[in-house]
Design brief:
It is built from 18 helices and 11 strands. It is of the alpha+beta class. The strands form 3 sheets. Strands 3, 4, 5, 6, 7, 10 and 11 form a 7-stranded mixed β-sheet that branches. Strands 1-2 form a two-stranded antiparallel ribbon. A two-stranded antiparallel sheet has the order 8-9. A hairpin with a 5-residue loop joins strand 4 and strand 5. The longest helix is centred in the middle third of the chain and has 37 residues.
Length: 596
């Protein structure tokens, strides 16, 4: 079984010490939110994750979901877990009080999301997709639709999905064929087939609200002709309760590599009644409200899997005895030393730890900017926060999931052969984490988004929201007696990022294939520098706290040690990435297609 205890101490560090949670109270709607309140919520969320969700994880993977006569049955224990989750108010955490939500900050919500993903990644998709659908409806639907659907989605009685993908239309949604025919009463009849629909059919809620991309009869070709429609499983009656079954059925569930407790469905819409959300032919932009939310949440999935891998691997490395330390026996009273004494095992564990704590810090920064974007009374601050989150969304989605998958593989490697068999749950972590690199836009698509859209937007305006605070931090701290060497290493890496950015600006505009060839390496380089920034900031805080008397010296010393490991053993990878970027497209694009 996997080992997981919510990393509350590090979460409090990120929330309060690194990103100053006390300042959240100046934002609209958060005036009464205190650090103490947030701590109590995190502690309660930890109990839910550890005591309710984690025990359902391995059993749910064993049996998966089952389709019976058009109804999907989730694994045993899921419904009870969901009911407890819903009854505890966890579906309403970051939603608007107008619809029954608790109105809590995303800075807190993303940490709770991480706990859920660490405990049971498959389960996390049910409330996660509902919250994304809630955001799209809240941002674009009519007041009538909001008032009818959002209270039920917020309290978890109804759930939500997004229905984009078709057999012929994956990343290229301009190819989709699902049709929407206007009706005299203002509704639409939706007909078509969708695949890969997470939580598309299940037994956890009394209704499921599908957000469906489809084409109107007179729609222009391509992505400019897509509209979004709200299509419920059951059409609500005048009393707001589920009424007659709508024309949508689950025709199959996917037999997947991982996240088997999540019902991934093929859905058939046959003259299903739907309602337009947002403007006609603007559905792709409308859906991206949900997509961008989900991309950040998928990044958190990678972080959640990495944390469980780390804790499980550490527990095993402390317990498993094999061989002797290279510098001499550390436990002479035992027949061998625990494998945690070996340098290569420590390399793997510290790599995972540097990933998880670095990603948690970076995710906290992005979440904080989401709060500023949504709640600040200063339009300039809101715009800057919007630019920053737009820039960082593809980085968080791709980097966190790439590193999460690497982390689960490293955790399995620590177990050796015992990781490869099912008994310990490490191979499940690897299988579950793998999907996060694919859905909500593959990581290659995220890289193209970063290079092709975000970098040139506003003549580099978005980049300034990251480059300027990083540059200012380096100037303030590079001569620090204790941490100056670490900051100078960050300065060198930042220089590599600036060179790579300049190279793409010079070559990518003239030849889009040059930008495409470098995109994945550029996103990784960007992400590693961003984590380096978070580690340097964390080191400054830790050094300041260690200079003061206190009981938490062990925590801050470990923070500084992990920061040093990241700066010395991980961040130098940017040099090789810069060399790859500068090499250009020739080595990959000159190969004749027939030669592959």
């Amino acid at each position: 079984m996997q080992t997981y205890k919510a990393p509350l101490r590090d979460m409090r560090f990120v929330l309060h010490e690194l990103h100053d949670s006390a300042a959240l109270s100046r934002l609209r709607g958060l005036e009464d939110i205190s650090p103490e309140l947030m701590d109590s919520i995190l502690e309660e969320a930890a109990k839910v994750a550890e005591e309710i969700l984690l025990p359902t994880n391995a059993p749910g993977d064993e049996v998966g979901c089952v389709l019976e006569n058009g109804v999907v049955r989730t694994p045993k224990g899921y419904k009870d877990a969901y009911n407890a989750f819903r009854d505890g108010g966890w579906t309403a955490l970051a939603s608007d009080p107008k619809y029954g939500g608790q109105g809590l900050p995303e800075s807190l919500n993303k940490l709770v999301e991480e706990m859920i993903c660490s405990a049971n990644l498959a389960f996390s998709l049910y409330p996660g997709l509902t919250h994304g659908a809630y955001q799209a409806i809240a941002s674009h639907a009519s007041d009538e639709l909001k008032d009818l659907y959002l209270p039920k989605m917020v309290d978890g009685t109804w759930s939500g999905t997004m229905c984009l993908t078709e057999n012929n239309a994956g990343t290229d949604l301009g190819l989709l064929r699902t049709r929407a025919i206007p009706q005299d009463d203002g509704t639409y009849k939706i007909t078509g087939a969708k695949i890969f629909i997470s939580a598309g059919e299940h037994d956890l809620t009394e209704n499921i609200v599908h957000l469906v991309l489809a084409r109107l009869p007179d729609a222009p070709a391509g992505t400019r002709g897509i509209s979004m429609f709200l299509v419920p499983k059951f059409i609500p009656g005048a009393d707001g309760r589920p009424g007659p079954r709508n024309g949508v059925v689950c025709t199959a569930i996917e037999h997947k590599m991982g996240i088997k407790g999540s019902s991934t469905c093929q859905l058939q819409f046959d003259d299903a009644t739907g309602w337009l959300v947002g403007d006609a032919n603007k559905g792709l932009a409308t859906m991206f409200t949900m997509m961008n939310s989900e991309r950040l949440s998928v990044g958190i999935q990678g972080l959640g899997a990495a944390e469980t891998s780390y804790q499980s691997a550490v527990a095993y490395a402390r317990d498993r005895i094999q061989g002797r330390s290279l510098s001499g026996a550390k436990h002479p009273d035992k027949p061998a030393d625990p494998i945690i004494v070996h340098p290569d095992v420590r390399r793997m564990l510290l790599t995972i730890r540097s990933y998880t704590e670095g990603c948690r810090a970076l995710g906290g920064w992005v979440a904080r900017q989401l709060d500023e974007m949504d709640r600040s009374d200063d339009p300039d601050i809101r715009k800057q926060a919007e630019d920053f989150t737009a820039l960082m969304t593809p980085v968080v989605k791709a980097l966190f999931t790439d590193l999460g998958f690497e982390a689960t593989n490293l955790g399995l490697q620590v177990y050796g052969g015992h990781g490869y068999i099912r008994d310990h749950g490490m191979e499940q972590l690897v299988r579950d984490a793998r999907i996060a690199l694919i859905y909500e836009g593959t990581n290659g698509v995220q890289a193209l988004d970063l290079v092709g859209r975000k970098l040139p937007q506003g003549a580099g305006r978005l980049l300034r929201t990251f480059f300027h605070p990083l540059g200012d931090f380096i100037e303030r701290n590079k001569d620090d007696v204790q941490l100056g060497g670490m900051v100078k290493g960050l300065e060198k890496a930042f220089g590599a990022l600036q060179l790579a950015t300049g190279h793409l600006a010079a070559t990518g505009m003239a030849d889009p294939e040059e930008a495409g060839a470098a995109a994945t390496e550029y996103l990784r380089l960007f992400g590693l520098v961003a984590l380096g920034f978070m580690w340097a900031r964390s080191a400054v805080v830790a050094a300041e706290k260690l200079a003061q008397p206190g009981d938490d010296a062990g925590f801050y010393k470990a923070k500084l040690t992990t920061a040093r490991f990241y700066m010395e053993r991980v961040l130098p990878q940017v040099g090789g990435l810069l060399a790859s970027i500068r090499a250009g497209k020739a080595a990959m694009m000159e190969m004749d297609e027939a030669a592959f």
